[in-house]
């Protein structure tokens, strides 16, 4: 229909209207993204629920490492609708966006005022497809004619292309298939795989081309019209037609309800704290994909939506007391993908645990080594640590027996390959120039340095890795004893104690009051104050008096920003509050440190970290803990500064909240003892009450009500089914 519009917000007097009317032809900008994920499919939208070409770079709908939709832009009468609001529901299952029409002008007059049409967009992902529904309701007193246009594209870019990697060549676009209500866009990759995006419209548009769909509509007063779009990702010979919007929505909501019903849940009386916990719970649920081996928490969106060994293990450890089935799925998957031979191009060695797996085009054709990559020095000992913790949590001896050969292979890797120079410590060094230079959790190129800022040269022995190995050997000893192998148990305990003594002698720096970050290839200590030393408390290798000194240092202003513990002290040469690993705050790092400190009886650190990270979480969009944030000091009346390309959601960031709570409560859940134990439980002042429901222990379950009384916490049993005991020590 004929109309004229203005291009910017204007204050003026319409020729025949209210002299105080403020014209609103367009909405304000907003750079927040909205994320959905289901299985191997995820989508990153802008605040309008759209995918803009270019956009923030990562916007798009992705499936199995490829972007299947690179543009989805809604236009109303040839321009962007006016933005009202958007949110991802608490369950992380659906994105809801509210839009309206801008003031529509004709001959200098307001023909359709702002707010006449309400455009409601609801989006969800289900089984490899994106389901999009637009409802338009007329709240005016006269019929409104309008034109809706959807622009779309599919660039089939590999996730590494989106991240900025340049390719020497790529495949070719396939001829599009165009029907009355469907268009199929295709791409033939260099891996010989066909990938197709099928866009199905209902009802059929008045005009459909290979890159846009146009609908002409008339909405009567208080009437409503609706349009659906389903975007299915087809790979190879797969041409499965997705269900209707209603069917997908019903299935997604039913799946979420089943998960909620069967899971242990935490609820707080403080509304903000409860929202923080609920978003973390939802993020864990969303990041978890069902694989043939069981549930596995993918690392993070958008760059790491795939199984990572280290991330999966740490997420499982963080949430073990809450969701032990997650640990079982992680252990089963990593055991099934454990390395069995030396493959230098993959940094693989027998017994080593996977770092990451990718199945996108660039990984399949070998343009990078990450298709199946083992360049992680810590995933292998952490795998053994998790196996031991899972056995204590569940007493599942049959699974433990089946897992033992993989545990033994991992322990053998530590001895045969991890200790590269025979000095009793575990070091790393890549076998391929395409692999990661640094192979601990701080894996950026500048993460490991000396006090003068010079980068350390490998092979490198990280302090926290020795702690993981110590804990792994002790866990292996527990498993060996349970499987009636006493000689192996004794040997592993002996190895653990020998490592502890070697570690204290090689890493403790009395002048710094902490452990050295690492030993370089010349066995020269990296005399740098880092959060890595705090993770030595998590593994339990630190002597108690030295653990207390480390904890005091980590809570000093040099480390503690007010929001959390920085990865690097402010007085160090390479400190930068915006550096990925040299000054930022990582929630999972803080949670591991806090849990370790709690086990040493250092509850003040755990309580301080919980309070800081919770305060930070209230400022982040959707109360979501990001992968990391900047390490600037906390200022009165100001929030934390986000890290510009942090993944959110991130699995181990989501898991950090439940581990922090466990640390403060001194909580231990043991099916071996049939006991839930609270040692010197603490709740922060802003959490007067807490409920834990459906906490499982073998064949028993319990509901608990925790109440804060000053500095004390009372634990009340609301419901108990089966045999278990609740022990509270003060």
From TrEMBL:
Residue ranges occupied by any Putative glycogen debranching enzyme N-terminal domain in the UniProt entry: 36-227
Comp. bias intervals (Polar residues): 1-10
Residue ranges of domain Mannosylglycerate hydrolase MGH1-like glycoside hydrolase in the record: 314-614
Coiled-coil boundaries: none
Chain segments carrying region Disordered: 1-26
Pfam assignment, any one: MGH1-like_GH
Entry-linked InterPro entries: 6-hairpin_glycosidase_sf (IPR008928), 6hp_glycosidase-like_sf (IPR012341), GDE_N_bis (IPR032856), MGH1-like_GH (IPR054491)
A biological-process GO annotation: carbohydrate metabolic process
Source domain of life: Bacteria
Name of the protein this chain belongs to: Amylo-alpha-1,6-glucosidase
Lineage: Bacteria, Pseudomonadati, Planctomycetota, Planctomycetia, Isosphaerales
